[in-house]
Design goal:
heterodimer; A: 119 residues; Transcription Regulator spoIIAA; five-stranded mixed sheet; B: alpha+beta; Heat Shock Protein 90
Chain lengths: 119, 133
């Protein structure tokens, strides 16, 4: 049986979400609730660590698209790191590497939160 | 192999187990598993989304045919919706002009080698061919 889990860590002013397992049409609402909660608490610097994300479908991608504008309007960003080649390929087929900061590791993403943001 | 699944996103766990079993018993490389799951999920959830008002199960058939994997989804007693006629997304658009809808179909078209759509006697049959190798 597939499963999906989200662990949340807070590092200074960045909320790191560790995604694990299958982000699909069944589990995407769980991620959506986490985003809603972060935005309600005005947490706009969000890093998605995809190290243990084994699968993503369009429902999962839709969550990132749904919140990115609100986050950037509030001078924050959604950055993604540690993607496996299969997960990266899905983002790449949609041209997302031009729209989102996708970094090799968490350290690089954290550094980018202090650099000028993409608009 | 073929199996019917309840038209509900909660069926995805069982569908993924079914695909894992197919990949294992067909002695396919595990790397094909991601693409098959992706394609099946997008087509399955599309059928749920666009064919509302009934509770018929959706048939999913998986076959290894020479150098192809053939994936077929059949939905019964539905209105026609030819997803092969859906236009491509413009992936060069900036974020604020992008729409969430249509992502899945766009990606399915990119991931597979051929898609057939048939509609007869209120039955929709979508067949997808994915080259191995």
């Amino acid at each position: 049986m597939s499963s999906f889990k989200i662990d949340i860590r807070e590092m200074s002013n960045i909320n790191v979400l560790d995604l694990k397992g299958y982000l699909d049409a069944h589990t995407a609402p769980d991620l959506e609730k986490v985003f809603q909660n972060l935005l309600e608490r005005k947490k706009y610097n969000i890093l998605i660590n995809c190290k243990d994300l084994t699968y993503i479908s369009s429902a999962g991608l839709g969550v990132f698209m749904a919140y990115i504008e609100d986050v950037r309007k509030n001078n924050g960003d959604i950055k993604l790191s540690n993607m496996s080649p299969k997960v990266y390929n899905v983002f790449d087929l949609l041209g997302f590497p031009l729209l989102y900061d996708i970094t090799k590791d968490e350290k690089e993403a954290i550094q980018k939160f202090t650099s000028p943001k993409k608009l | 192999m073929e199996k019917k699944f309840k038209r509900d996103v909660k069926s995805l766990d069982k569908i993924f187990d079914y695909i894992n079993h197919f990949v294992l018993t067909s002695q396919l490389d595990d790397s094909i598993s991601f693409s098959i799951k992706f394609v099946v999920e997008e087509l399955f959830t599309n059928m749920i989304k666009y064919n509302v008002g009934h509770e018929n199960d959706i048939l999913i058939s998986l076959k290894k045919n020479g150098q192809h994997v053939v994936v077929e989804l059949v939905d019964y007693d539905v209105e026609p919706f030819d997803l092969t006629k859906v236009g491509d997304l413009d992936i060069t658009k900036p974020l604020e002009r992008r729409e969430v809808g249509g992502l899945g179909i766009h990606l399915v078209k990119k991931m597979v080698d051929r898609i057939n759509y048939e509609y007869e006697n209120r039955t929709c049959r979508i067949t997808v061919f994915k080259n191995l190798g």
